[in-house]
């Protein structure tokens, strides 16, 4: 038994290392990587503790289903953090003896609000890719839930067979199961969490039992039953060159198309009013998006890492763009922002290396931290005179930025001043600042650097505003 436990610990380290190697991908859902690595780390500790009690473990009876349940005293040695955080009353360990060339250990917890068990986490080591049949019950207690992050990083699973006792699948439950090719949702499932099957690189379709009253699969894509919410598109789905979301859809779940590398063009129906967090994040080959006229917000990470997206038309109805919304869209060179936008989040356009110039909407009152960080080819930018604050590193390392134009909008009163963080232009080549007459600048910093020092090598040109606020003669 000592050898088995050592093997669990050794191979868990390998799993953990492979997850870390995917850090560039997983950083977009940082909570996933932190949670999964924490689980693996605590499980290693538990495995070592189990090795000290190997005689007791060896004496545990094997059930008729070839599973070995560890008693409560020994279960306390493993995943104590999960138990304490979720207020579980009892915790069990289930060793699957059907794995011939490896080891599979489930961590099971009694549910605090109903009779049954949840699979909180697993430790799987195997020398080959396996088909996994999840047990239906233990000791006459049904296994009802697959917990959040339960199977994160289990790379050696090809198929998962869920029992009809399962009612809930948690957030990121099977995230980064990179060899998972097939999964079927039984009729008993009433709840599926965000990004439950995200970054399953070989998953081409998600099947749903036809008698399920809550969910349906349409061409391998997971929807709610009446197809008003698109929940998840599998990462390896084919025929995504020109995908049209069904007209019945009014909502797209967070991370619904996350890491769908086969997606190149997509049309979104008019009923959708928001592009939710991470919806198209890391779609490397996405080149064209048609946004409906009813969109009001583009949320955090919505198009982050879409490296081949070259242009996008933002509808006039959009009022906000979230943090990192277009971050690392390396080939994005053309985007027009409508004047209704009043909020642009931190790092929203960071590392958009081919963005050359941009005019910010008239309603913008602040430019957040890192908003245009490392936009290498950004040469000039136009900001409205109503902007009251430009944040830390807002234009940092925009090495070709030479000109900033301040547009007169008529929305600024005589007492309004614009404050700049003294690091906002660090690593730029700004040599010209065009401002309307009477425009007032302050620099803010702990070091007390004044705007005079900030712009000591910058030519500041004041111009007399025209009667029209629609045009800006300094935008070239």
**Main beta sheet, described?**
8 strands, mixed
Unreliable stretches: 1-88, 446-452, 468-476
The CATH architecture of the domain at 1-203 would be Alpha-Beta Horseshoe
Mean pLDDT: 80
Ends apart, CA distance between termini: 73 Å
Annotation, overall tally of beta strands: 34
The CATH superfamily name of the domain at 1-203 is: Ribonuclease Inhibitor
Oligomer: single chain
Q: Give the amount of beta strand, in percent.
A: 25-35%
Radius of gyration, in angstroms, nearest whole number = 27 Å
The shape, in one word, is: elongated
CATH topology of the domain at 1-203: Leucine-rich repeat, LRR (right-handed beta-alpha superhelix)
CATH level-1 class of the domain at 1-203: Alpha Beta
Helix content: 10-25%
- Which structural category fits the helices and strands? alpha/beta
Number of contiguous helices: 7
């Amino acid at each position: 038994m000592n050898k088995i436990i050592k093997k669990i610990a050794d191979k868990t380290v390998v799993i953990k290392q492979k997850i870390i190697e995917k850090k560039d991908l997983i950083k977009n859902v940082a909570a996933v990587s932190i949670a999964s690595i924490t689980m693996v780390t605590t499980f290693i500790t538990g495995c070592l503790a189990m090795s000290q009690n190997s005689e007791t473990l060896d004496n545990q009876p094997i059930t008729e289903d070839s599973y070995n349940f560890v008693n409560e005293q020994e279960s306390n040695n493993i995943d104590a953090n999960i138990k304490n955080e979720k207020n579980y009353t009892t915790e069990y360990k289930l060793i699957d003896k059907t794995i011939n060339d490896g080891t599979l250990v489930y961590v099971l917890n009694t549910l605090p609000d109903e009779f049954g068990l949840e699979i909180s986490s697993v430790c799987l080591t195997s020398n080959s890719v396996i088909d996994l049949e999840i047990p239906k019950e233990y000791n006459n207690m049904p296994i009802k839930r697959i917990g959040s992050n339960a199977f994160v990083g289990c790379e050696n699973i090809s198929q998962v067979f869920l029992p009809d006792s399962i009612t809930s699948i948690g957030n990121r439950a099977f995230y980064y199961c990179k060899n998972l090719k097939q999964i079927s949702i039984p009729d008993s499932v009433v709840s599926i969490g965000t990004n439950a099957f995200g970054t399953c690189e070989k998953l081409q379709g998600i099947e749903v039992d036809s008698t399920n009253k809550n969910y349906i699969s349409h061409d391998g894509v997971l929807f709610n039953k009446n197809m008003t919410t698109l929940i998840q598109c599998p990462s390896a789905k084919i025929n995504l060159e020109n995908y049209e979301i069904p007209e019945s859809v009014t909502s797209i779940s967070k991370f619904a198309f996350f890491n769908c590398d086969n997606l190149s063009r997509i049309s979104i129906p008019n009923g959708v009013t928001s592009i939710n967090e991470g919806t198209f994040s890391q779609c490397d080959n996405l080149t064209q998006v048609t946004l409906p006229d009813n969109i009001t917000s583009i949320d955090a990470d919505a198009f982050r890492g879409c490296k081949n997206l070259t242009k996008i038309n933002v509808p006039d109805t959009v009022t906000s763009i979230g943090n990192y919304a277009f971050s690392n869209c390396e080939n994005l060179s053309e985007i027009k922002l409508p004047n209704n936008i009043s909020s642009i989040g931190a790092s929203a356009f960071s590392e958009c290396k081919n963005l050359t110039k941009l005019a910010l909407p008239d309603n913008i009152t602040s430019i957040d931290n890192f908003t245009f960080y490392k936009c290498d080819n950004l040469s000039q930018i136009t900001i409205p005179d109503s902007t009251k604050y430009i944040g830390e590193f807002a234009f940092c390392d925009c090495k070709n930025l030479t000109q900033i134009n301040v547009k007169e909008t008529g929305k600024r009163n005589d007492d309004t001043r614009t404050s700049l963080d003294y690091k906002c232009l660090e690593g730029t080549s700004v040599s010209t600042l065009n401002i309307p007459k009477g425009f007032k600048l302050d620099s803010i910093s702990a070091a007390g650097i004044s705007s005079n020092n900030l712009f000591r090598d910058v030519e500041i040109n004041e111009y007399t505003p025209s009667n029209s606020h629609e045009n800006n003669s300094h935008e070239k």
